[in-house]
Amino acid sequence: MYEREAVEMIEKVNKNFKVLLVTGPRQVGKTTLLLHLKPQNMEYVTLDDEVLRNQAINDPKLFLEEHPSPLLIDEVQYAPNLFSYIKINVDKEQKNGMYWLTGSQQFHLMKSASETLAGRVGIINLNSFTYAEINNNANRELFDPLNLKEAPYINTKKLFEIIFKGGMPELYKNKNMDRNLYFGSYIDTYISRDIRELTQIGNIDAFKKFVVSVASRTGEQLNYSALALDSGISVPTATNWMSILTVSGLVYLLEPYMNSEIKRLTHIPKIIFMDTGLAAFLAGWESAKDLQLSEKSGHYLETFVISEIVKSYNAKGIKPNISYYRDKDKNEIDLIMYKNDTIYPFEIKKTASPNLRMISNFKILEKTNKKVGNGGIICCYDKLMHLDENNMIIPISSVINPSK
User: Fold this and answer.
1) CATH, residue 28
2) Does 302 fall in a domain?
3) pTM of the prediction?
4) Which phi and psi (to 5°) does residue 154 adopt?
5) What is the pLDDT of residues 151-198, one digit of tens each?
6) 34: closest CA among 107, 155, 126, 149?
7) Residues 246, 248, 250, 256: what is their CA dihedral angle, to the nearest 10 degrees?
8) Bridge partners of residue 333, in order along the sequence
């Protein structure tokens, strides 16, 4: 079994909260992980079982009586009315670790759980495998501009093979799994089971076109008009459907950097598809080499680096304070991390020959009222070293696989 970065956080939540809720996209390993970690005396039930689901929906009190704590309930989003009865039970027992819950989708789950179980539930968002998890480095350091670490070099060919494959656990556990068959089935399952059952989307074909259009634009600024045109839908519908992709964990919107001192900043977020393998499949890329040599390769590399940062921070229960910079004159900085009242700028480049011209836009940040810390170029170079006095050349491995 691949060790997950979230293990430490799950154990911490279990010791400090009465209820643990692990959310995230379908098939990222939530159930497998909790079954591996659960105490021997904890019963497991899944609401994928139609009989159990109907009982949980129609008679939640009886359901919990027949399945007493400690209890692991899988796919709890199908019976959100359980939360109020779980609250009654945990308030009565006053024990930590009574209920472990998983939910593949977060459409109404997060709000319902947060409101009903406020102060009683610890929530962890799990994503597909990180590069570190694939390489048995689940205890690695988080990427931190104040604590950059050397890591084993990843050549560009291998890097794009990982980007093309993505991080879905089944593709690593089952070596014979055909990538195209897997992702085709994944999309059909996501749409037929989750979208149809948990939303009011009527035109499924248009929604599929919309998801393909979003995947094809990963690493780019969000343009609702273009997405709507591609999918044959209205802009308000495109806006609504994008919210479905973000709350279900398939897409992360990287917000633009905002500062009152700079008047001409963009207000448009950037699309980050959280699993680059799924994005590449939807966009029709047939091989890692084709993707690596394409004009879109920079967007996929940027998507990969940012999604890896978000995944690893999610696993530690931390919301990464990141953004990107773009102004009306099209000056751009790919990634800005904000920490200790200081901003740290980074460029993400598919190059093994970084140079000072690539960070020329960093000087724009001098207009802000914030302290600007050391930044650098995250790239395909093979060694962590200084670019100049204030900025580093940072191998991609030092972002996605830094050792302790």
Assistant:
1) 3.40.50.300
2) yes
3) 0.93
4) -115, 115
5) 999 999 999 999 999 999 999 999 899 999 999 999 888 776 666 665
6) 126
7) 20
8) 325
